[in-house]
């Protein structure tokens, strides 16, 4: 089917190790005779059965495959020809003499086995003819054979097998769909390169975790050039298209539906979800019940309404691909007529307008405009674009609809198109003004969209200035947008100042407080006011979770909460909030939020010291920004990726990435500055690089961005300028409530002071925050300081602690870890022997456990004592 593809036909088996071991162990046991694998078509039952029996085949089992299908089942015993071998059976005669049939079959099987144990593998057990099934059940009961069989979901187990299962001689295993992480693993292997998490999530959603569907979607996406590499990472663009083979497979399952059931399936494929009362035909409930029992449709109760959808996303694509364009139009318009004939909810209005538009009979401009606004509430950005464009074409006021289109384009990451639409909206607003409020909304959207361009924040501020000059009344509402842009420019004091008099455009006091809470959280965090920032962000999240119609999406509030948590050192909760936000953003195609969340996840892992994981997320941002937008995140992520690689000692790769960044961007972005100077410190003039880090930190401090300033000063301390950085960090610490700034200040003081105890205390502080890399650096420095103080035992203990933490840091090779004066390290065997000796085991006992001689154990212990500066076993427990 895909012989000309570069991809393998047989994909790696992932996520099935436990199931595989369970099947094999069950068949090896004396009590179980059969394993039944249940699940939907394509989930991997057949592959799992083959892999399990292949293991048994290497253990002197005879494996006999049997394929059941409707054609063979019409022939009595037709499916068992491979079991019966060359034995000639008179099926008519033996069917009346079950004993004779059993004896012939038993003798035939035993002759084939030649003393080996036998396992029969039956694909689609439910399709076996009754005589074959009865004979196989007899052979099972007699202990002649073992059975591994697959059964599709929705198909009943044969009574004979069910009886065995209830008697505990058969095991039923429901084969689950694969997870997103398993998709990432298999796709990385098959495509020979990293796959963006967002792509894995989209493919998982489209395939439902079904390996067969996944394979066909990947083939189809590659053929359609929807699946492409961007900056070395695979990205899926648009809805994945399945192959004709996949559609044929799905349609074959629907081939035997009754006419009324097929009509419902067609309607669902075009219009899902559909309320039960809106389905075509009479007695729809009975037909839906049959479709649900067959696993074709699913029911979900939402807001007191019973909604029906097809059971799998690919059913929609397969059914639609078999419908003519005229048939689809007919279904759309008929469904619109049915729903509009009764009282409609706002959701109904949106769907009817969309159906009519898709059916070539668009509604009047007023209904299209209302539907576009409803699509905004539903966060259906593609629908917003289509409905708003149709409203303009139908004669609706242009400025507002162009504004809605532009905002939707921005959310989808299509910045250049968004800017074009918003500039047109601004021009229409000037030529044919409606309300000052709309002018403000258009200006804020333009400014945000400019911020999505590299170095676009200043241009966005200019847009806000120009509109405020024309409409001074907008100054207080646009202060919110100004604050965001100023904070992007690292002007924390100015951003906070803008918010003092800011007033959102809303008549709701609840919304006003929520918007101000979310807007003030980030400036407060930048200023180092962590407690206030976190409290404000939590209020915003609470509003988004509880309000009937919140002023902003929950994921946006979660993004803010994650950022302020990360900037205060609460990395674990920040990571959880970011993952929740990102998956919601993926579900709503919110590319701007996805890029932000990917970047935040990279920063979370960097803060933890998990450098390989951080690099993966930063690479996702670079690739996603290039393929999907917004482009501004690309350079931010490149700077962070270059820094991460430098911390891993991959200087050449880091240098190449850094070279892609413009000097103007590096000068304006502190993380890019940090990356450039870190690389310079390791490849050139370290003293000059740290001096410039201190100078840049002073500039950022003057702008009030305490968290960024402390980042730069901490880096200078880690590069050898602790004496100069410590006092500056101390002053920042005294002016803030930020635990992260305090940890950085403690680390710099300890490095400057050189006390082993203070360095170990700083390491423990970092470890408590989950920052293993910085903790490892502190303990490595403590080991060097202890060694200089002739404290060999303490030095070894600190070095051991540093080594253990560094192992969690995925390739960390920073200067404080690389260049060490620590004592000669223990070998792996010396550590193993010392650990057992510290538990009180004698040399003889250790020798027996490790398969060594007692003399060798004693030699290892003597070497350990010398390296650690201790006198004997009694002091090993302190190491």
Tell me briefly what this model is.
The chain is an alpha/beta fold. It contains 45 helices and ten strands. The model is unreliable at 1-5 (pLDDT under 50).
Order of strands in the sheet with most strands: 2-3-4-1-5
The count of DSSP E runs of length 2 or more, i.e. the number of strands, is 10
Strand fraction: 5-15%
Low-confidence stretches: 1-5
Question: What is the overall pLDDT average?
Answer: 90
Largest sheet: 5 strands, parallel
Structural class by secondary-structure content: alpha/beta
Could you say which overall geometry the principal axes of the C-alpha atoms support?
Answer: flat
Number of helices: 45
- As a whole number of angstroms, the C-alpha radius of gyration is 34 Å
Distance separating the two termini: 62 Å
As a percent range, the share of helical residues equals 55-70%
Q: Can you put this structure into words, describing what you see?
A:
This protein is an alpha/beta fold. The protein is built from 45 helices and 10 strands. It has a 5-stranded parallel sheet with strand order 2-3-4-1-5, with helices on both faces. Strand 9 (297-302) and strand 10 form a beta hairpin. Helix 13 crosses helix 16 (325-340) and helix 22 packs antiparallel against helix 23 (457-470). The chain is flat and about 100 Å long. 50% of the residues are buried. Residues 1-5 have low confidence and may be disordered.
